[in-house]
Amino acid sequence: MLTDIRVSCSPHISKHLSTRSVMIDVIIALAPAMLAAGYYFRAHALLLIGTCVISCVAAEWLCNVICKKPNSLGDFSAVVTGIILALSLPPKLPIWTAVIGGVVSIAIGKMVFGGLGANIFNPAMVGRTFLTASFGVMMTTWAVPYTMDLNMSKIAPENISASNLREFRTQATPLAWSKLAIKNELGADIYSEEQFKATFTGEVGGSLGETSVIALLIGGIYLLIRRTISFHIPLAVITSAFIFATIVYLRDSYTYVPPLFHLSSGGLMLCAFFIATDPVTAPLTRRGMWIFGIGIGAITMLIRIAGVYQEGVMFSVLLMNAVTPLIDKLCRRIPTGGKPGA
Amino acid sequence: MKVSTKSRISFPGGTHPADKKDLSAGKEIQQGPEVTEVAVMLCQHIGAICQPLVRKGNSVEAGQKIGDCDAFVSAPVHSPITGKVKEVALRSHPVLGRSMAIVIEALAHSPTKRPYFNLQDDFDVNKYSAGQICEAVREAGIVGMGGAGFPTRVKIEPNPRLPKDALIINGCECEPYITCDYRIMLEWTNKIIAGIKLAQKASGCSRVFIAIEDNKPKAIEVMKTALKIVPNCGHIQVVPVRTKYPQGGERQLIKAVLKKNVPTGGIPPMIGVVVLNVATTAAIAEAVISDLPLTHRVVTVSGEAIAKPGNYYVPIGMSVEDLIEFCGGVTQKSAKVLLGGPMMGIAIADLKTPLTKASNAVTVLTKEQIGRAKFARRQTACIRCGRCLEVCPENLNPTKIAHAVKHNLLDVAEQYYMSACIECGCCSYICPANIEITGHIKTGKIFIARQKKKVPG
Questions:
Q1: CB of B276 closer than 8 Å to CB of B169
Q2: What pLDDT sits at residue B266?
Q3: How far is CA B75 from each of CA B129, B159, B248, B299, rounded to the nearest angstrom?
Q4: I need a labelling partner for A288 at 20 to 30 A (CA). Which of A115, A231, B36, B300 fits?
Q5: Of the candidates A160, A204, A164, which has an alpha carbon nearest to the alpha carbon of residue A182?
Q6: Where do the H-state alpha helices sit in B366-436?
Q7: Quick check: B256 and B241 in contact, CB under 8 A?
Q8: B48: how many CB neighbours lie within 10 A of its CB?
Q9: Has residue B329 got a pLDDT over 50?
Q10: B17 in reach of chain A (CB within 8 A)
């Protein structure tokens, strides 16, 4: 006998999706990059990832307690922020610095805006920017991957030459050594096949998760297959960066790095698949996504080519995050049937 | 002969809920129970409400007109049974809350079932003029039987300013669980074809399409075979369309079949198209050929909480409670009773709610299913994942509209074209944050309607 009749608004069934399942997908997709980080930078890498995750989660819990808001840890977004932050940090960063980064990411990057969904900027990038501004030296000290000879002699940047590039590329990020190589007038001959390969597999200096392009691609493709992200933003970022780099390279191939090299080094791949695609801070519409992605690619290249910094991803993402509401407003979708009354 | 029926014809957006049609798809159309009382709603359609033509104590015959209205967009109502008017009073209405109904008590020992209408072999569409058909359709009180209940006469009547060109017969039945149209296509094929010919004659359309989702290969085959046998059907084309919700939505179907967009806020006749449900076409045949008014219809009773799911031919005005009881009752203590399917159906609180002309199904969901539904799960903040934009068949921005309504910013909601929403429920269905997007949008539309009418509160 029916005694308890339930009512609600339609629809009465739903797809078995939750914010948590979306976040877990991202964590799975980040696993190859984390494994690559662990492979090249060993225990300290895993320690850094762990620290960032724990500090992010703890910060979110604390913010919720202080603000008397319901616990929001169940959505796992803090874990994702922690992992992305860790993957964008230099491998030798002291643990306490990572803790600060994690707390700033969550507290200032997310919770002050009202928590998940309300933040304007990518929380991990807020944390990383804070660390770059506060601990500049630490944030640009790179480590030798463990798969290489750890006792390689240190080379002063001014002594860089085509013969000791292998040694040198472990002491700075690819983009940094290419800038120096250009300065020392080594020219295009430093971009041998071996160097390229190193930037793909990850056997170079750089942030934890950005070095191995292959691992990032595997994760990115997983997200695309799972439809957790759409292809628009990654494609726009990569294409616009590539076109930008090609134009300057064609104009002056001696001074500028080859375009493929720009794609495979620095945080561009990490950004294209994992940072720029953060749904909260990216535009909603397809057209908006194109504009957003093209903007990130172009600004990144502008910073890399004309700016003081060797990397440009962090700032370009934050800049484009700031204009996301504007993009959303300008790229409003038109109903299938056209504007009413038209 | 094995016919490949996989179709790619569809519209952009949409979702793929599990169709669950197995519960009742194999059940033949059966006569429903004898009833003792029916409550015929005076408003069963979109448009003006009927005025009662009978009073308390009057005797009525089965098929007698008991309510009518002079307005163009309206349809009369008829008594499905022979009996006595018990009262003209308020009854629970699935859409309007409480509304006036004529309650008729059946005469003792008089049958309340209506035998199935059988099409005679000598049917010839040339015997009827367009005007005759339209008049018969109006007098029979025929409205769209797929769910919306738009008066059919208004759709098919020729309009010199908007000449009609294409007639689409909607056999998609995209909502999960519902199988009444499927059974009608299998069992009443010739009636449908007769109805199509009549509707075509009345409306003057030159092209006719029968759209059926490709998860009903049997219906597609039966229709195709019948069209080969029945004479003068060469121009009628069966179009298998992709199984996707809301494929049966009028605008989506037109997009899929004709690749045309119905203007926002407009209706299909504006682009010369008429869309009729298969059940409606069968009713047209009944009305025109033997003057049978629309007083009985096929209703699917289904859902995991129903003992005997099936497709039943029942009088309009019968209460949901009687019908559920006839189907063995509800197997659970706690359930949700829906008039319609789970995507757009209306959850009713009062089981005495009578069936209307547009009630194509009674779906009863179990507690477990309810537990997984939106309101029982925790709602989290929108992460702007954009899934609702992807599935929206009308290319809207559901999350923005819902947010605007939530914060009472109706002008912002309108900037995002809230009024273009067809309330299909795809956005709520897909939302990982469990936000009742469709609910918010519906609320917003009601607010706007109130503002326009300047009705307080």
A1: yes
A2: 87
A3: 21, 18, 23, 20
A4: A115
A5: A160
A6: 367-372, 387-391, 398-406, 410-415, 426-430
A7: yes
A8: 15
A9: yes
A10: yes
Give, in degrees to the nearest 5, the angle at Cα A224 between A35 and B18.
Answer: 120
CA B315 to chain A, closest CA, distance in angstroms equals 23
Per the listing, tokens 């308020």 go with B90
Is the C-alpha dihedral spanning A288, A290, A294, A297 positive or negative? positive
ipTM: 0.87
Which residues from chain B sit within 8 angstroms of residue A337, using beta carbons? 251, 261-266, 394, 420
pTM score, two decimals? 0.89
A164 pLDDT tier (thresholds 50, 70, 90): low
Residue A154 has pLDDT above 70, yes or no: no
Helix or strand or coil: residue A245? helix
Q: Which residue has the tokens 């009088």?
A: B315
Q: Residue B117: what pLDDT?
A: 86
Contact B335, B55 (CB under 8 A): no
- Which chain B positions have a beta carbon within 8 Å of A335's beta carbon? 264, 394-396, 417, 420
B329–A333 CB contact, under 8 Å: no
The CATH number of the structural domain formed by B34-114+295-370 is: 3.10.20.600
CA–chain centroid gap for B29, Å, is 17
> Quick check: A14 contacting B, CB < 8 Å?
yes
Q: What is the CATH number of domain B116-290?
A: 3.40.50.11540
Closest by CA to A116, choosing from A59, A77, A70, A160, is: A77
Angle between helices A19-66 and A213-225 (to 10 degrees): 110
Sign of CA dihedral B151, B156, B158, B164: positive
Contact B396 A333 (CB under 8 A): yes
- CA-based radius of gyration for chain B: 21
Burial A204-233 (b: 16+ CB within 10 A, else e): bbbbbbbbbbebbbbbbebbbeeebbbebb
Length reported for chain A: 342
Contact of A90 with A40, CB cutoff 8 Å: no
Whether A279 shows a pLDDT value over 50: the answer reads yes
Q: Provide the Cα torsion A63, A67, A70, A74; round to 10°.
A: -10
Instruction: Report domain extents, chain B.
Output: 34-114+295-370, 116-290, 375-453
Percentage of chain B lying above the pLDDT 90 cut: 68
Q: Could you tell me the two tokens for B367? A: 């507690």
Scan residues 299-328 of A and list those with Cβ closer than 8 Å to B. Answer: 328
B430 shares contact with chain A (CB less than 8 Å): yes
